[in-house]
Amino acid sequence: MGMLTATDRLIAPTRKLLLVLLGACVVVMTGLRVPLITSHSPDIAGAELSVMHGIQKIMLGKALYTDPQQQPFDVVQYTPAYHALVAGTARALGIGAYELRALYLLNRILSLVLNLLTLAVVFAAARAAGANRSGAVIAGLLTFAAFSKHFFGRVDALYALGFVATLFFVFRYARAEASRQKRDAMLLAGAMAAVALLFKQTAILLFMLVPLLLLWLRDWRALAWFSGAAGLTLLVVGSALLQGEDMSLLLANTVGGLRNGLRNDYLRHLFASRDYLHLVGWHAASLLIPVALLKRRDPLSRFLLLSIPLSLAFAFLTALKAGSEYNYFFENLVLVFVGCAVMSAEPKLLNTSRTMASALVLIFFLQAGQYMVHRASALRYTVLALGDDAKHEARLQSDERLHSVLKDEFGLLPMDHVFITYRGHLELLLNGQSLVSQKDIVEWSVDPPFDLGRFDAMMRSGEVRYVISDRPLDSLRFLQWAYPLGAPVSAVDGRWIYRPAR
What we know:
- It is a single chain.
- The chain is mostly helical.
- It contains 19 helices and 6 strands.
- The longest helix has 33 residues, at 6-38.
- The strands form 2 sheets. Strands 1-2-6-5 form a 4-stranded mixed β-sheet, with helices on both faces. A two-stranded antiparallel sheet has the order 3-4.
- A hairpin with a 2-residue loop joins strand 5 and strand 6.
């Protein structure tokens, strides 16, 4: 056994300190999630309202996917599994579709539970890839920090679990020696990848990475197992989830609804901000790890060599979509965390001197620590940015009172339509009657992804009974159209009700 270098002697105490720091940060971050869960805000995440809208549709027995170009012009952007999970749980607990407070609490609690399960599965995946116990714990804890607000109450929470579960089976395949073990692992990887695709379309990345690995290895049997299991799972599970849905409308929503156009605003902002200083180390690792593995031929090394830089390229490409944010880097970050954990367990993989390998492990520990602290601070800012919860509660109560006035005093019927200029609980209270509820999709897009000419015709013909705003208006401007408005019919708790002119 060789002599320990000074850098070697620093690794053990540094690892212990890092584990304490990361564990403490996860506890703090979990605590910070509580006020987000209990918040009366209708949207703590990236358009959480739109996900809630889809959950309600299932609970109300409506088709999840309808024509975005016909009234009520709503769009369910994502594949159905998360909506079905929350809706089914709500029914089991006796929560009604219009019990918004309980439904929001359930949605956010389920997301937190899924996040914690994902942390545990990342630990298992890192162990399956060959990381030691402490490295696997570090990878899991870092993954919890990688969750942006999009994972707090949206389909992303379930998708993250499906993505890392697929990685677990791919790592099992890569390190298995017996052909039967390889077959079983790849069958489960294919099934899990298909399920992840039903969680969110971003899982298409798995259908790029895994087949590319198997083609590189020329493992035709494994490719057949993966493809067969994925196809069968999509057929069986997809049919169960999409029973009664129109497949053409599914594509119109889940493909057309994501067609926001290209903008580089987010990436320009990211690169110009201090936040990128906390991310750049992981991006550097995305290039360094593959270089270190270039000469290795084992399946695990080849998968990491392939998947880490490709997932980074995928993140940058998808981040060019208008409206993109930090959540697009999640897959790459998880792969880098696992890759670094494997490298720190086997410094010889770094193909360099022992001193240099130990120094790189220490750099990984330092990067992990500063990243975790930064993400905890970012979460605290997210909580503070919500503002006074009493104001959100008052807005909820105003929308509930206005809903009662519309139904009881104005005689609003189920077949009547309204246009609400702001995003809030009233859209959910009038699910199916509120037109263009997912305004963010058309307003964040470079060009509207759907033809809303029928909406314009309804506004001009008097088919839209009321326009409701949270501020006084002389006229309504929406997309390229303008509609004159007369005096308000009524005002209720800071909400103005107008009758659009024919």
